[in-house]
Specification:
By secondary structure, the protein is an alpha/beta fold. The chain is 19% helix and 30% strand. The chain has a 7-stranded mixed beta sheet with strand order 11-10-9-8-12-13-16, with helices on both faces. It is globular, with a radius of gyration of 18 Å. The model has no long low-confidence stretch (mean pLDDT 95). The chain binds flavin-adenine dinucleotide (FAD) and FE2/S2 (inorganic) cluster. Flavin-adenine dinucleotide binds next to strand 5, strand 6 and helix 1.
């Protein structure tokens, strides 16, 4: 007998853990193991409310985790109904191409950090954290996601953090995340992975190129509004591609001439 998997059918699950990261950003953890690679995403749904693409924030084999900023109907509903079952379908999309690169500089702005957490966990499980530098920019100290993990990561890898606006308790870097780029060592076959708001990605790419990275070695994770997540509805196109199907990660040299890449 041939059984056909219905790719639209979500699996309903209740999170086993819920943690507020900041005033508006939370992390949910499921008992299910992560069967995706860093950079991939799931569609999370709530009956009668809607469905949203959310990046996997956990490494392969670890409990499936998402970190979500409450911005609208689905993301606020999940935050306000912590005991409700959530529909999960996925994983979809491609992964960060970290294997084979000499060194990775991962640059995350704001809520771009979850798939970099997954990257850290994937690289850690293969003993490759020495090949990773992370640059993370948050708006202010109170907007920093993963405060506990960051303390551990700073001991295990080259993890650098900055905030746009400090406060009296903040002793670290102040400035946008691009200001950290000139301080990183440039490796001959190194790659840069960039994820965050479009304006942050645009200026990061400019700074990376100034710093000697070629467009072929820069990868961007692009965000587009999605409906189906599987290349059917046509909602998420950029140029000739559907972001859900060919992305969300694109080599910059492939998309650099698309006028909407940083929109
Ligand atoms: C591949 C991918 C991975 C993502 N990973 C994460 C993640 O790990 N964590 C996280 O918090 N968010 C992530 N997002 C963004 C997340 O999907 C949206 O914030 C979410 O869909 C909003 O849904 P909502 O129903 O709560 O908001 P809505 O009620 O749909 O909208 C609320 C507001 O946000 C705007 N908005 C909604 N979605 C987008 C979008 N994609 N781009 C720009 N504006 C938008 C709307 O215009 C509106 O102003 C990801 C998006 C993509 C495409
Ligand atoms: S979300 Fe439907 S084609 Fe990408």
């Amino acid at each position: 007998m041939i059984t056909i998997k219905n790719e639209y059918l979500p699996e309903k699950m209740k999170p086993i853990r819920f943690r507020m990261e900041t005033d508006d950003t939370y992390t949910i953890v499921f008992s299910k193991r992560t069967m995706s690679h860093a950079g991939q995403f799931y569609m999370l749904s709530v009956d009668g409310v809607g469905e949203s693409p959310i990046s996997v924030a956990s490494g392969f084999g670890n409990p499936l985790t998402f970190s979500i900023k409450a911005v609208g109907s689905v993301t606020k509903y999940i935050m306000d109904h912590r005991d409700s079952a959530i529909g999960l379908r996925g994983p979809y999309g491609n992964a960060w191409p970290w294997k084979g690169a000499d060194h990775i500089v991962a640059i995350a702005g704001g809520i771009g950090i979850p798939p970099i957490k997954a990257l850290i966990e994937d690289m850690e499980s293969e003993g490759n954290l020495g090949d990773l530098t992370v640059l993370y920019g948050a708006r202010s100290p109170k907007d920093i996601v993963y405060k506990n993990e960051i303390e551990a990561w700073k001991k295990e890898l080259d993890f650098r953090i900055t905030v746009d606006n400090g406060d009296p308790s903040w002793k670290g870097n102040v400035g946008v995340v691009t200001t950290l780029i000139p301080g990183v060592e440039r490796y001959k076959n190194g790659s840069a992975f960039v994820i965050g708001p479009p304006i942050m990605m645009k200026f990061s790419v400019q700074e990376l190129i100034k710093h000697g990275f070629s467009p072929e070695n820069i990868y961007l994770s692009l965000e587009r509004r999605m409906e189906c997540g599987i290349g059917v509805c046509g909602h998420c196109n950029i140029g000739q591609w559907y972001v859900c199907e060919s992305g969300p990660i694109f080599r910059y040299s492939d998309v650099m001439n698309e006028p909407e890449v940083f929109l």
